[in-house]
Amino acid sequence: MENVIFVDLCNTVADINCELQKLGIDTIQYPAHTQEPIDWLLLFSKAEPIDPVVSLVKELSREFNIIYLTARPIHSIAVSYHWIKKHGLPQAPILHTRGRRKGKFVAHYGDRVVGMIEDSPEEIESVLEVNPGIELVIPDWNYNRQFKGKRIEIHRNQQALVDRLKALHAVMG
Questions:
Q1: DSSP characters over 23-43
Q2: Residues near 99 by Cβ (< 8 Å), separated by ≥ 6?
Q3: Distance (Å, rounded) from C-alpha 54 to C-alpha 41?
Q4: Exposed, middle or buried by CB within 10 Å (0-12, 13-18, 19+), for 7?
Q5: Contact in structure between 58 and 35 (CB atoms under 8 Å)
Q6: DSSP calls for 70-86
Q7: 20 to 30 Å CA-CA from 57: which of 35, 75, 88, 94?
Q8: Rounded to whole angstroms, how far apart are CA atoms 110 and 33?
């Protein structure tokens, strides 16, 4: 498969942070942590699409081969495929990292990878280690602003973060 663009799922096309915030989980830090059990399959299925990224993926799929590359557990594959179809994203293979860094996948695919859409700082670092010249598109979250690359503004999510900070500030006085 030539001309591949890897696309992350969580907080890249699917707004997982918003769903975590609804559960009262602080998403300012990455990754978000909680001691409470989370029904991840339900959370994945309920997540709203991040529209600017979804639009970009649809546009890119006209000229490139999309492969979804996710750290989600393998048992989430049916939920992931259903979510992709429900939100009109291109039907494409889903690769699960199974705990490996995404940079390993970029290295494996070599010159066939022309770009990546990713939000995770650790994954961005692993990709840049193996391919510092990769065409990187980064959904703009507060936790990944230290990276250079094409940024996608996700205003709805940024407002949710601002609202959360205001609420925390009001509680703290």
A1: TT---SSSS---SS---HHHH
A2: 71
A3: 20
A4: buried
A5: no
A6: E-S-GGGHHHHHHHHHH
A7: 75
A8: 34
How far lies 82's CA from each of 24, 51, 56, 90, in Å?
26, 17, 20, 12
Q: What is the pLDDT of residue 171?
A: 56
pLDDT value at residue 35 = 83
| Secondary structure letter of residue 154 according to DSSP | -
Whether pLDDT at 163 is above 60: no
Q: What Å distances lie between residue 7 and 145, 163, 166, CA to CA?
A: 18, 28, 32
- By the 8 A CB rule, do 149 and 133 touch? no
**pLDDT (tens digit, 9 = 90+) per residue, 123-143?**
999 999 999 989 999 998 889
Whole-prediction pTM: 0.86
Q: Is the pLDDT of residue 155 over 60?
A: no
